[in-house]
Sequence to fold (98 residues):
Amino acid sequence: MNKKLLPKIINWNQYNRSLVNRGNLSIWIPDNLEEIWLERTKSGGVGRPNLYSNQCFELILTLRFLFKLPLRSTEGFVRSLFYIQGIDLPVPSLYSDF
Fold:
C-alpha cells in the first residue's frame, strides 16, 4: 500500500495564518472604470445604441466564471462590490440585456 507522505508541520502559527489567508479576497478595480464602463461611441448602425462597453461585460463574465455564479447572483455581486467601493455606476441586468 502506497501512503502519500505529507510534510511534517513544524511552524503551526505560520500554517494557521496560511489557512486563514486562503479566504482573503482582493479584487482590483481599475482607476479608469468610469471611462471604460459605459459605451461612449455610437455604432452607426440601425437600432438602439449600446449602453455598456465590451470591457464591462468581460469583467462581469470573468467574475461569473471565476466564482461559478448564476447570472443574477453575478449582477448582485458586482452591485455589492460597487457599493463597498463607493462607485456610482449602473450594472447591467445580465439575464435581460444579452
